[in-house]
Amino acid sequence: MAAPKKGRNASAQSKPGRSLALILIAIAALTGGMFASGHTTPRLGIDLAGGTSITLRAVAEPGQESAINKTNMDTAVEIMERRVNGLGVSESEVQTQGDKNIIVNIPKGTNSKEARAQVGTTAKLYFRPVVATEVSGGGATPTPSPSASSSASGDSDKDKATSPSGSTSPSASSTTQGRAVTDALKADATPSTSASSSSSPSASSTPSGDSSTSKLEAQYAALDCSKKAARAKAGDGAKPTDPTVACGQNSQGQWQKYILGPAEVDGTDVKSAQAVFQTTTGAGWTVNMKFTGEGSKKFAATTGKLAKNQSPQNQFAIVLDGEVVSDPFVREALTGGSAEISGNFNQDSAQSLANMLSYGALPLSFQEDSVTTVTAALGGEQLKAGLIAGAIGLALVVIYLLVYYRGLALIAILSLLISAALTYTIMALLGPTIGFALNLPAVCGAIVAIGITADSFIVYFERVRDEIREGRSLRPAVERAWPRARRTILVSDFVSFLAAAVLFIVTVGKVQGFAFTLGLTTLLDVVVVFLFTKPLLTLLARSKFFSSGHSWSGLDPKRLGAKPPLRRNRRPSHPAGPVDPKEA
């Protein structure tokens, strides 16, 4: 029964090179990926690299000052975090300060401009029918508009942007055009088609009357969307149930002005949105939306009505915080509960629109009080101090290993170097892949991991020494010590990883960086011990220096107080009677 077991052990001992080759290939692959991606250093957090700090102040609507409360502020922080993370900006900090302020810290090297544009955007989203539109400051210039189509439809023609044949403009002198605008506004306000009018019986009367229409036409005629101040005031005070004027930028970068009917669908009716690159239809970047049950009904009714109209009144405007971000036209009623917006999108614009549609509106409006650039001077000094402390700690560990374990210290030092190489390459690759950024607490987690890794080596070395003290030679000692050491190492690393996971879940901000790094290095400790430390010791145990118990090997039986070999402990039994003095 013992022979097969011995054969298996011999087979296990004879192939440590496979494990060593595997981990070296992994390091080579990670290093190659790091250089191929162009990210040869880990991304740094705002405390190490600097960045942008934005202070936002909550502003309540008139008569709704009580809306500024802890619940709404916490909700706003949560939505801002989702928006920023949706852009791939990691290690950003969003936190309240006092009762009315929110501080947003965005690390340098990320898409901070886009993040700044999104964090304070209230994201009050409405789908409004287009009544009239033209390029601001010019005549009725046709401009390409994206199209909206059902995602279930296979008609690729619907995904193509087209040019309206002409825009209806109240500023034209034609009485017929003015009458068309009036009729369109009245049609948009009927309770049967307006989703908003169902909750407000008076909505249908809001746009009626020549005076309201004339006032809106006058606002439209005077609106110059090429001016920032005019864009900021466009549509001020308009309720969702009111027609309004608005501005938006077309695909050529020109500012366009609009007359829009009452809101038919709002942002809460959108269940999810995603930016998708369409390769089969050739539409390029699109935004796919899914509506809620109620939203599907509203959207089907709206698109069914718009599909019967001529351009531009077959378009609906997606209005975000008073600005038109897209104005697709409709060819047929979209009844599938989902829709695809296509047109002149690139990846950034499609992702930005999808972000706004997905993450919803902030419960409060925010005013940008200050935007400051954070330097990395203080963080750099702290990092320098931390690295010095880590170097001192590492030097002390190496000195201890050399003094106490002598030749075995070579295995420990090589294992630490392998662990450092894996940690560095993985952190460098995690930056562009999941947005991981290295901050000061994360550096502390990596320094703490040195002790965890060294502890694993010590456990294994002491088990091997225990076996040698029992009288076994080195090669059997290495194999017999491994199962016991392995259990201890796994239990110890499991406890460390569990603590890191709990810390990551229950904390926020920079502390999560510490927990993430600690958990990562703990997992790598298991990999290094199993695939490098143990196989390397198995190989070195075959060398004369270690197997002979050289005094500088750290495995000298005399220094360890080893017992005589086990086979010599068994003395032959003697028969009763006198014992030969020589044998005694």
Describe the protein's architecture and organization.
The protein has 584 residues and is an alpha+beta fold. It contains 17 helices and 15 strands. A five-stranded mixed barrel has the order 4-7-6-12-11, surrounded by four helices. β9 and β10 form a beta hairpin.
Shape estimate: elongated
- Class computed from helices, strands and strand pairing: alpha+beta
The proportion of residues in beta strands is 15-25%
Radius of gyration: 36 Å
Give the oligomer, counting copies of the same chain as homo and different chains as hetero.
single chain
Biggest sheet overview: 5 strands, mixed, barrel
Query: Biggest sheet, strands in spatial order?
Result: 4-7-6-12-11
The number of helical elements comes to 17
Uncertain residue segments: 1-13, 138-147, 149-178, 189-208, 566-570
Would you report the number of β strands?
A: 15
What does the average pLDDT come to?
Answer: 76
- Span from first to last CA? 37 Å
Helix content: 40-55%
